[in-house]
From TrEMBL, chain A:
Membrane topology of the entry: Multi-pass membrane protein
Organism per entry: Cohaesibacter marisflavi
Cellular compartments per GO CC: plasma membrane
Molecular function via GO: quinone binding
Transmembrane portions of the chain: 6-27, 71-96, 102-122, 143-162, 190-211, 232-256, 262-284, 296-318
Protein name (record): NADH-quinone oxidoreductase subunit H
Entry keyword Transit peptide: no
Localization per Swiss-Prot or TrEMBL: Membrane
Superkingdom to which the source organism belongs: Bacteria
TrEMBL record, chain B:
Residue span(s) of domain NADH:ubiquinone oxidoreductase-like 20kDa subunit: 25-136
SUPFAM superfamilies: HydA/Nqo6-like
NCBIfam families noted in UniProt: PRK06411.1
Pfam family, one: Oxidored_q6
InterPro entries recorded: Complex_I_20kDa-like, NADH_UbQ_OxRdtase-like_20kDa
Cofactors: [4Fe-4S] cluster
UniProt entry keywords in alphabetical sequence: 4Fe-4S, Cell membrane, Iron, Iron-sulfur, Membrane, Metal-binding
Protein name: Ni,Fe-hydrogenase III small subunit
Family designation: Belongs to the complex I 20 kDa subunit family.
GO MF annotations, alphabetized: 4 iron, 4 sulfur cluster binding; metal ion binding
Length: 319, 145
């Protein structure tokens, strides 16, 4: 009974649910504010994403006459739920470790795919030609980045498993514990290819420039999101805020968990999240233009895949 | 309890803007892009954001004298914008037709067809004027919430 209660708390309160939502929206606000400052503008207030959500909840949700209503409105819900569970799956060093009953790294990798799939379903359910374009672009991009990320995660899992005397471990708690006793993977040259592959995966999964191809508002008019309005669109915003938290804290758990406990662990983790958001999102998206889908695809099957394969090979050889 | 009016004034801090070009000469459109995109006239600090889809919009900026060709399309797009919405007519074209007035293919003034709330005259209007128009539109929008 208490494990179930613990899981529910983890999904809805901390670190999932309410906490992750506030955190994710604040990170987005920080991103917009810093982006404006870097361009020499004043920029929106930090709480702008919260304002946007409140505003969206006042608007009307319109369903296109040709769309299938249950799928059209169910898709964003499925995305939010998957991300809620995913946040609760990522442990925070010295603060929170998920119940093993909830799942492991493999479940998390599956859940990370759900937002992309949800966007595809939403795009095709809306029956808009732009939605269909977004669908095909989202799928191409997902196929391109999925292999490198799985291999990069595999490299981390192998390294930890071998370090512990076994073969491979898919428990993020073990990965964090190993790094706390043997030093972060960030400082371990053997893991650098995997880290680089993860860093390249990160903007693609979050859908920011240069990889915001499926939702490019100047080309395909926000693609799958074109037909959404009001609360349903708000759910997509919630989903992407939660996804930012999941992917960032997964990166922290895989490569740079801090060796602190309690309140210092929490502060350190928040600082890490904010710094990663600025380096990985704001600066990247301000300094690049959008790639074409074919460029992005060939980029991903070249460099990140190469790096990820190299990382798995080096880890196996070194161990 | 004063919760609901509070939420409404929070909501008006996030006006999303959509542009309809109803046959404009592009002068006004360039000014609108300038208003939002260059650092000097940062409209994002009002919480504004240009959106690609009419369904995401709260404030719609219409430019141009509404030519006969574009009229039906503009109507369709306008009706796709969910309520509550506010309409801002940018430039002198929507008011009188501007340099195109008395042309056989022009339907201006456009307030016979669209419920215009704010007029921003000028050919093209200055960015400051457009920002003022948007600020006025936000006030009207707050009343409509
Ligand atoms: S008001 Fe002037 S600048 Fe604007 S669309 Fe009309 S003619 Fe062009």
């Amino acid at each position: 009974m208490s494990t179930q209660l613990g899981i529910l708390l983890a999904v809805f309160l901390f670190p999932g649910g309410l906490f992750a939502l506030v955190l994710g929206l604040s990170l987005k606000g920080l991103d917009r504010r810093v982006a404006a400052r870097l361009q020499g503008r004043i920029g929106p207030p930090l709480a702008q994403p919260f304002f946007d959500l409140v505003k969206l909840s006042f608007k009307r949700t319109m369903v296109p006459a040709t769309a299938s209503q249950p799928v059209f409105l169910g898709a964003p819900l499925a995305g939010v739920v998957s991300m809620l569970v995913a946040v609760a799956l990522v442990p925070v060093s010295g603060l929170y470790s998920p119940d093993p009953m909830l799942g492991n790294l493999i479940v998390l990798l599956y859940l990370l795919m759900v937002p992309a799939i949800v966007l595809m379903i939403a795009g095709s359910a809306s029956t808009s030609p732009y939605g269909a374009l977004g669908f095909s672009r989202e799928m191409t991009l997902m196929l391109a980045y999925e292999a490198p990320i799985v291999l990069a995660v595999l490299a981390v899992a192998l390294r930890t498993g071998m370090g512990q005397g076994g073969v491979i471990t898919f428990s993020l708690v073990d990965i964090i514990a190993y790094q706390r006793s043997h030093g972060m993977f960030l400082l371990d040259p053997v893991m650098w290819p995997a880290l680089a592959a993860f860093a390249l995966f990160f903007p693609a999964n979050l859908g920011i420039i240069p990889f915001d191809i499926p939702e490019a508002e100047t080309e395909v008019l926000e693609g799958p999101l074109l037909e959404y309005s009001g609360p349903a669109l708000g759910l997509f915003k919630v989903m992407s805020a939660l996804k930012a938290v999941v992917v960032l804290s997964l990166g922290i758990a895989l490569f740079m968990p801090l060796p602190f406990d309690g309140i210092w662990g929490l502060i350190g983790w928040l600082v890490q999240l904010a710094v990663l958001m600025e380096i990985g999102v704001t600066i990247v998206r301000l300094s690049m233009g959008r790639m074409r889908i074919d460029q992005a695809f060939s980029f991903f099957v070249k460099w990140p895949l190469l790096l990820a394969v190299a990382s798995v090979v080096t880890v196996t050889v070194v161990a | 309890m004063n919760m609901i009016p509070d939420f409404k004034s929070i909501a008006t801090k996030s006006p999303w803007i959509y542009r309809i070009n109803a046959g404009s000469c592009n002068g006004c459109d360039v000014e609108m892009a300038t208003t939002a995109l260059i650092p000097r006239y940062d409209i994002e600090r009002l919480g504004c954001q240009y959106c690609g889809s009419p369904r995401h919009a709260d404030i719609v900026l219409i430019s141009g004298p509404l030519t006969t060709k574009v009229m039906d399309a503009a109507m369709v797009v306008f009706n796709e914008i969910p309520d509550p919405k506010v309409t801002v007519a940018v430039g002198v074209c929507p008011i009188s037709g501007g340099i195109f007035r008395e042309s056989y293919s022009v339907k201006a003034p456009i307030d016979q067809y669209f419920p215009v709330d704010v007029n921003v005259p000028g050919c093209p209007p200055r960015p400051q004027a457009i920002i003022e128009g948007v600020a006025k539109a936000i006030e009207i929008w707050r009343e409509r919430m």
